[in-house]
Input
Amino acid sequence: MADQTDGFDPSRRELLRYGAIAGLAGLAGCSQTDGGDGGDGGDGGDESPTGDDTPTDDGGTEGDGGDGDGGSGPYRIGMIDSLTGSLSSFGERNQRGKDLALSHVNEVGLDGRELAIQVEDSESENQGGVTAAQNLVNQAGVPFIIGAVGSGVSLAIYESVVQDTDVVQLSQNSTGLGLTDFPGLLRMSPSGRTQALALSNIIAEDGYDEVAVTYVNNNYGQSLADSFTSNWDGSIAYESPHDQEQQSYSSLISQMANSDADAWVFIAYQAGFTTMVNEIYESGYEAQLYGADSVRADSVLENTPEGSMNGMKIVTPSAPVEQENYQQFASAFQEEYDREPTSWAAYAYDCVVVAALSILAADEFTGSALNDVVRDVTRPEGEQVTSFEAAAEILQDGGSPSDVDYQGVSGPIDFDENGDPSGFLQVLEVQDHSYEGIDFIAG
Amino acid sequence: MPPLDFLASPLLGYLAEGLVYSSIVVLGGIGLSLVYSIGGFANFAHGDTMTVGAYAAFVTFGVVGTLGGGVLGLPLGFFVALLAGAAAAGVVAVVTEYVVYRPMDTDRIGLLITSIGVAFVYRALVQWRFGTDPRQYAVETLRPIDALVPYGIRITVHDVAIVFSAAVLVTGLHLLLQYTDFGRKMRAMADNPDLARVSGIRTGRIRLWTWIIGAGLAGAGGVFLGLYNQLTPRMGFTVLLVVFAAVILGGIGSVYGAMLGGLVIGMAKQLMPALTQLGDLLPVLPAGFGIPIGIEYADAVAFLIMVLVLILRPAGIAGEAE
Amino acid sequence: MGWFSSPRDEWAALSGIERSVSGGLAVVSVLLLLAVVGGVVTPAYFVFLLGLGGMYALLSLGLNAQWGFTGLINFSVAAFFGIGAYGAALMTGRTSPIGLDVVPVVGLVVALLLAAVVAVLIGLPTLRLRADYLAIASLGLAEVVRLLALNQENWTNGSAGVRGIPQFFAGWPVLDGLPSALPGFRVELVPGSPFFLETPFYTAFLNLVVIGAFLAASYAVLRRAHRAPWGRLLRTIRADEDLAEALGKDTYRYKMQAFVLGSLVMALAGVFYAHLNRFVAPGTLDPITTFYVWVAVMLGGSGSNRGALLGGFVIVAIREGTRFVDGFGAVPIGPGPLRLLAIGVLIILVMRFRPQGVLPPQRELIWPGTVDETPTTPDAGVREARGGGDE
Output
């Protein structure tokens, strides 16, 4: 009898104890989270209401207005990044760029206030991204979101959460073509279409008329490959998707070799591409290799033998490396993190700066007001500036958004009517087993 | 068609690649089958045990260095690291057995679920310590063996080392099982544990050593997988399903079934490119004929083969009917 | 008997663990309600999370019908979830390669039909196998489904997925425009901390209504089935299949029925997901969903519908709770491995210390009419009845 239950007869005290623990766990799941950001921490300017009755620092001014702020706390925006999951290495680079930008912005300040960024993890998955967006939009109530990494995730966030609201969404890393269909969804990385076009031009110029193509089987790879094949005038001897995290790509490589094409195009992520390069080398195949930006990484150079990628040409969206502001950015980055910045860090940097400029230029801190100005601060009308400080000066002197043309560290930006930036590409060639820039292409 | 043409076709190349890949799957599969026959449950942590072995070898190799010398393109230090990796995997498995599985009072299915949790723990710890960036063993990447290239076989001496080492280990296990006292006792326990205990066999000790051997083989498989490809925290998990398919196909609980299953599944995956070129490869079929299944379906085909075998023989090829 | 007529008796009749869980739930509910009222948690986000919890609860219910009732180790949960989602998406999505434009209810019917068909296809070769084989085979076949969804662009748009899926109530006379049409309210119960009931809240609330309806319907059907002779037979199969066969029952047929039923419930959750996210991609079929649902069922109590429901909500709490841990700078482990570690340790602890889960089935397996109350410890022991002392 007594064994039928588990000998468990809780007193009221135990009941309360379990309940409290469960309640805390549940509450933990629902409450605001604070990612690493520069402008928050212990200062009393935090505008999130506490559970007790003391009014916030704002002194009880209007206090409402939906997304409006109360007066003296930091401007809080959101960021959705791939902190975990398959794209987490991009997320890491983004965070570095964003942290650097945050410190630069807050050195100058936004009308005496700071910028705070609440970072949420998309887990490199659509569902994770949507939940993160729900948190930021419906719980934290931010009017501006920088997100996400991965075209599929960005689209999911937009269609599921952001589209029906006023919130501005600016993706830091999405090259898939689908985003062009949504003018409300901005992005800092150029559409893959420019890359695909550039690749096909380069290969044709090099004298090849037959190619073998492989692409990673996700939104990014597929849309880039589609764009490439539609732009390519010659013949496609072989085309096949591949999955990430395979133990061996020997079937793929041998099929490419059997296709008799001498130019092989790779739209792949670094880990998979490393395996492919090693496979090519170990099988003794020779071919002229071409790649999209995702194949480029120092880890690829480290994990492949000398001479394995000799002469490979890679097209990557790039910062204009000869420009002064990029060099300043690069040296500041080097000082802070002891390594060279990647374009992904540069994109994240520019996203933060553009967000900050929009806040300065807008009439109020609401989604619709920010939406009105975010494109104008980067468009070619107005004075060209290359740093947040200079742009802020113009705006704070009473300038309007179209008086400013922010030239980013990742390129001129210049959002078009589809929310895409003008692409600025760099062509790299692998020489002596390292990446050398050989050309620039303006989008 | 003159026979030399056939030899120059890619078919031999696919078979060679299949042999190399199968070696790794076989090493994983044997361990899985051993654990199943003696431990009594399907161990979902087996793939991550391979990961543990691979990373342990990575660390050892970094500490020990190459130590000069070597065979088949692999320095002596690598073989030391291989042993260390296998040993580490064995130790981790034994500790897990004592801490987690043995005190549990649940059936086979409960242990299966628990092993999923154990797999997550292994993976999380590896990822914590090493991060998600892929690593490689510090051995040179080699060119293919020149003598074999005209036959369409493009493998390196490292690949030969993998096949050779796997063969040595498998042969060693076979000898152990068939010709030693210990092996006899293991087989007795697998057949009928109660009878074995009654007839005086120290089942506890046998069980312990089975865990060590099974996990050790998995660790070795992991090291070779790392050599063949690269090291990532998810490496063992991604190969786990293939290993399971091989073991189930061969009949879970049967070591020889696992060997056969590993060979079949490994070959099947690497022979996928041949499907679209069947007409060109086999003189029997008309040229240009091909089954239009792309290589992206390699895993799917492997599973379907497994299911097909199970329909025909529900216990697997060499498995015992329940 | 009943909660309304004699609540005190009902409470006394609950077992200890049931009381703890009820108490815990009551406390959590009160705390969450306070949080919403106090403006700490916005109503829209809270209701969204509830909806997500409901979805996992529905998935757990489906798995419970297969594992809890019948003892089938089904590792293809993600496949049926995905089939439900894709069925709804392909019928109603704007970018669907099929190019129809039908009301979501039609999509629901199609999704369920598709799930039933695939369930039979997967069940045919696998249900005759013994338990551990069934596990691997179902996992493998689920991977086949995922690879098909990923690679067959002409059927599913491949990795681009299907977008532009309408809300579930699109096309309904009143409910379609309701969230935007309803007036917004600003409620300030705690001074200085207002909360808002506006369009996002109404949308989330409507979604909650949908999943609530799905849950209620599935729970009712499953509960009835569980108590019926059919359910008893399934439990016999779970406990001892040979015995059931010896009794002359065609166990294969019953297992197939349970398998299909469970798969339908899982597909229902997938349909909800499609209309919640409005975007479906092959990542939906990732096997990690299968493992989460298994943890939910084991945690909640295998064999018990209530346990499955509880497990579903708890798993969402854990997943979103580990998000919160990212904010702890003090913890030296990164959020990715931490989440993995936490789930792994949780599984091990649950299986070690409470393998039957928090709420294993108890009285719920018995028709209310057959037994008046739980058997209780008698007031008087045998010795006492014979005239001895008290306990």
Remarks:
- Chain A touches chain C through 75 residues (CB under 8 Å).
- Confidence is low (pLDDT under 50) at residues 1-11, 13-69 of chain A.
- The longest strand of chain A covers residues 434-442.
